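User: Show me an example of a complex going from sequences to structure tokens.

Assistant: Sure. Here are the input components:
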Amino acid sequence: MSAGVLKLSRDDRPILIAALFIVVILIAGTGYTLSRFGSAPLLSPNYLLQQLQIGAFLGIVAAGAMIVILISQIDLSVPWTLAAAAMMATSVGGGWAIPVGLAVGIGVGIINGLGVAYLRVPSMIFTLGVNAVMRGLMVANTGGFAPQTSATDLMRTLASAHWFGIPAALYVWIGVSLLVAIMLQRTLLGRYIYAIGNKEAAAYLAGVNTRAVTVVCFAISGLMAGLAGVLLAGYSQKAYQGMGDAYLLPAIAAVVIGGTNILGGRGRYLGTLVGVILIVLLNSVLSIMAMPEAGRQVIYGGVIILMLLVYGRGERVTS
Amino acid sequence: MSDLALRARQNVAFLTAVGLFLVVYLIYHMSHPKGFSSAVLVQNADEVFTLAMVAVAQTVPVLAAGLDLSVGALMTMVGCCASYLLTGTTASMALEIAGYSLPLGSLPAGVPGLVIGMVICLAIGALGGLINGLVVVYGRIQPIIATLATGAIYIGIALFLRPQPGGKIDEDLNWALTNSLGDFASTVHIFSDGAAPWFAPFAGIPTPFVLLALILLIVWVPFRRTVTGRTVYAIGSAEGAAYMSGLNVNRARIAAFTLGGFFAGCGGLFLAIQTSSGNADIPQAGAYTLNSIASVVIGGTSLLGGAGGALGSVFGAMMLRVISFFFRIFDIAPLLQPLFEGVILLAAVSVGSLRVLRVKNTLELFR
Amino acid sequence: MPTSPPGDFLRLEQISKRYGGVRALEGVDFACQRGSIHAVLGENGAGKSTLIKIISGVVRPDTGALTLEGVARDFRSPSAATAAGIVCIFQELSLMPDLSVSDNISISAPPRRLGLIDARAQRRRAEALLAEIGCEDVNPLARVRDLPLSRRQMVEIAKSIGHKPRLLILDEATSALTSADVEKVYKLLARLKAEGVSILYISHRMHEVEALADRASVFRNGRHIETFDMGARTTPQIVQLMIGRDIATQYPPKPPARPREPALRVADLNWETSLADISLSVGAGEIVGLGGLDGQGQKMLLLALFGVLKSVSGQIEVNGRPVRMRSPADAKSPDIRIALVPEDRKTEGLMLAMSIADNLTIASLGDFASGPFIDRAKERSAIEGGIERLRVKIGAAQDAVSTLSGGNQQKVVIAKWLMTNPRVILLNDPTRGIDVGTKQELYRLMRELADQGAAILFYSTDYDELIGCCDRVAIMYDGRIVRELSGADITETNIVASSLNIAQGAHV
């Protein structure tokens, strides 16, 4: 029994702390709005749904980032994979728009995976290089201007429509989350991912095809970036340069705040979900407070360090 | 084997970077419409200096096997500080916090004020680096994620200082540091205002190059020869063996980040002087961070730590920059420039990794 | 206990040390003198390395006293022992591979000028020390990474000489050396001895001990057995002392020898410089031991048979069919079915932070799959079966495997592979660091598996185990199989003699 409690605290503690912190953010934000405007928008379902709709793009990117981090790698090519997928999708247009966007994402991911798994270039630098190449390709392709093409109707619907009062993007995010969570917990691939992140040599000697798993993980990360790009283009009606820049670091932060070890092998998808919600709500409270960008960045960095210090302390106590 | 040949073999990656750079740069000059001239050199040096400094800043923590994702942010923050401190006029400093004004004293006008201002800027850079090191060592947070967070804080402070690009840098300072040595001499009134006959051969050398060399010579070269500096290399090479040999691993790691912060401060200071303003540009900070990592790798420093050095990173940075010079003069397809940069970076790192094909015991790949 | 003259440099009295339930040293008295080379002999696990660790301050004894020149000392760290003049050359290199030879030699206290490391003085120091050990040809500017293993070990020796030792401990320091370098070390030791340094010399190579040592102490099962002047005992007598007569361990009975279908057959296997012309066969139901000194190619042979090594030449047949393996995934595939219990269970055998359950099924996960999903009910019952079969003592299958004792961790590694139902089982020193009770369980299990038809290739550093468990034993030396023993020929004397490659000279 005590072992069960220990187990719970080891993996779920960060998630619990992060969830508590979300409550704190909501209370503090509501306190602020009540005293300042006499209203409590943070507690209105519509407002929350709207925030989550925006959060869906980050959430999808974070899901991919988490899978790569779990095998103790990192994918820095997200910004321009996302932008490239969006640009290709809008420029192809029609029924093929979304498949093309997703294919671009998977393709970039596979290239990343091959470089990391077979050449064993550190993923930090290889994906950085791929990011630069994608940026170069897109600049060359669009002539350096924002693409003139616009998102297809389906893309707009997926990103902005509401079904049964709930934003469609949220359905996509929920779908992705379910798939990733099931993949990590219930499938062979998921088990292999954790094994590789824990000790690649041991996984290899247990007969796990570590290279193939690595390539698949990067492909998933690319696919997620592509999906986010397609949705984001739908949301803003078009693709534009630099549309992915704001997603890389927050996604990594969300994964880490959710308790996933940046060195891989440990972490639950629920944590990433909580981490994304935390960052999204933190952002919305700060914008309600009309916090200037400066304060946001400081608070943002402070929260990451604070959370990790709190988690780290817990770890030392239990071990 | 002679010592020279041995050293050459140990530094193949570095020498390749230098050689490649020299070839490319020579071609650039030969095809430059105006030919080889001091003006072109000065322009190139101005464009290279900041990235070179940030690349050096990145090198030190990387040698100790820790990445610093905050170098760009730290550079930006120091630049914003400089746009307040280096105006050259008597300005009383005050910190505005939530409507309250907190007086911080004032800097004198003229040269003493400028020197004090620059020292403060560099100290701020070093302080930022020190904080990084403390968080990593005592907070036991992975460098990559710790500096991601501190980087956000530094960028926040920069934005707080300069919500919009602005501020002012003393014009003489700008003129003196971003041109040739002759201009420097005439601005600060030395060597008969730069007209001394013996000085003539040196007058055309760009000041930023001299600054870069001086900083490396005065700070980096001695540091490398301290016990702490060598411990930085030892940590990256084999942390366990370093610890067993009785080296102070924690102190060296903190020193590495602090020194990185100082170099990033040098970069930020120069950028502010060069552009005569402070600009809390987030994308620019990010680009500098990523380019610093690329420069380090191109310059022959292993991301796993232990091998390489600051000079290599300087050449790595120059290599990255010279590619963009090319696109300017050839004027064929400037749109292809980012693509070429990316392909060259990718090719450089992939070629370096081809040695894995020679590894015969697969288990060795995992170590 | 030998009476020691007052001129002893170092004295240990009644030293005991336990690791968990394992007794490493028990009531050991030991002394060594100035200006003398003192050999410490014993089988693997006799307690030699614990003895050295205590003397050099790496571990502290549970009980007992250590006196240095008549003064009681208690070293709390290796650097405290170094400061007292006790310098140890360990087998594991303590060098930084990316730094130069001269940097490494002066790493902890480099010569300085104006606060900065004086590269020239440091280089001169390195040159002087290298010359002292006859390695003038090593360039002090060379990176340690670029040196061959033998030269690296010499650099390590130069580094230790730089500490001005009064007691120098060499723990198998010559095992990585070429014969030319061994000669140089001999000369060095002779000179140090003349200067009054005491030297503790640990080696498995009997001819080295005979050539060098003035005195020798034999250890067995954590106890000090005897100390004598060299020449007072013959080599066979020394071997006899090392082996002892008490066989504490019980082994399951061996079946009578009979011809068997070879399940694994290897012919003319070569790999780099580590394996040369290996030919070997292991029959179904047979346990074949791999013996010999550490590092003679045994580990590489097992890795080669598991698809880990690239460009292996020669033929491998499993159940009469030639097979080609490019990865462990190939090796465990249904038509080959080879399993390997690797050398280091903490880094190669287990994902320590993951649960016992996850570790148990990682190699056989495909069997519990329905499509891409894991059939949890099937997996759970397999886990229960595995835990029960090996009697792994656990709290809950969901606990991290790192919470288990060493013996139980090793059981998990073995249970993991049994789930793949292997035809051929490769064991790389599976009982190292495991208590006697668990060892016996493992021996029984091995025999059980063999009786069920598995072919087992078993590398062990413990000769006693090889004798007790194996139907045949192949002894390796320098990448070759130098001798195959079977039946009544599997004796400690024969194994020790072939391992030391001293041919037939050492019959008792």
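The lines above are the inputs; the final block is the predicted structure for all three components together. The beta strands of chain A are 162-163, 166-167.
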